[in-house]
Amino acid sequence: MTPPLLRFDALSVALPAQRGALFAPIDLTLHPGEMTVISAPSGHGKSPALRAAIGAQPRTTGTVTCLGRDLSQLTAAELLLLRRRVGFVPAKGGLLSNLGLHDNLTLLWRYHDLATSDQLEQRAKEVCSELGLGDLHGRPLATASYLERHLIAIGRAWLPHPPLLILDEPTFGLDEETAIDVWRRLAALRKRYQVAMLTATSHPGLALRFGGTHLPLQPAEAP
């Protein structure tokens, strides 16, 4: 089997203003094409667990290995380079209201100057096709449906074709039918490109209809 793209060994995290860990230590191993679904009630550590996967959340215990690198051994500059190789979708998408739909989709690539204009346009077309989005040029954010907003946030992370996608509540605020549509499209990406996915959700049942491993967070005081 190929080496894992992401591994947690007895990982737990804590917030600066809170005493003790947010959840009991967790282990996971994620290979290409696999999905792990982290679940817990709101405020119980799902988002910090995802941020720990890219070294953006300090660990309380354990180790994190991402794309073959032990994050505790990386410098700040090395961490930034690694994060460019991982697609991260924050909770609620993180789209910018002062940018149009196409500019939101291509923002990170343009910011990091990772491709020529022609390469960027070609990749943007491919992502729109892969996610079932139409032409985004000239459209302000206010014209986008809730589904389009979620897909654009996913597309922005998927644009550089990373081997690993980390998605924080990728169906937040969607009705069940629309949420299932999003999970179906994500499953198609996994199947076609063997991209690994780590996702957090308060409603794991919908995600797990399309495969994956469930990892419910337990309170830190649990045995």
Entry summary:
With 223 residues, the chain is an alpha/beta fold. Helix content is 35%, strand content 21%. Strand 4 (59-66) and strand 5 form a beta hairpin.
Order of helices and strands: EEEHEEHEHHHEHEHE
The structure class reads alpha/beta
Q: What share of residues is helical? A: 25-40%
Number of domains: 2
CATH class of the largest domain: Alpha Beta
CATH topology-level fold name of the largest domain: Rossmann fold
Count of helices?
7
- Taking pLDDT < 50 over at least 5 consecutive residues as the criterion, the unreliable ranges are none
Q: How far apart lie the N and C ends?
A: 32 Å
| Shape verdict | globular
Structure in words:
The two termini are 32 Å apart. It is built from seven helices and nine strands; from the N terminus they run E-E-E-H-E-E-H-E-H-H-H-E-H-E-H-E. The chain is α/β, with parallel strands linked by helices. The radius of gyration is 17 Å and the shape is globular. Strands 6-7-8-3-9 form a five-stranded parallel β-sheet, with helices on both faces. The protein has two domains: 1-85 and 166-223, P-loop containing nucleotide triphosphate hydrolases (Rossmann fold, 3-Layer(aba) Sandwich), CATH 3.40.50; 93-161, no CATH class.
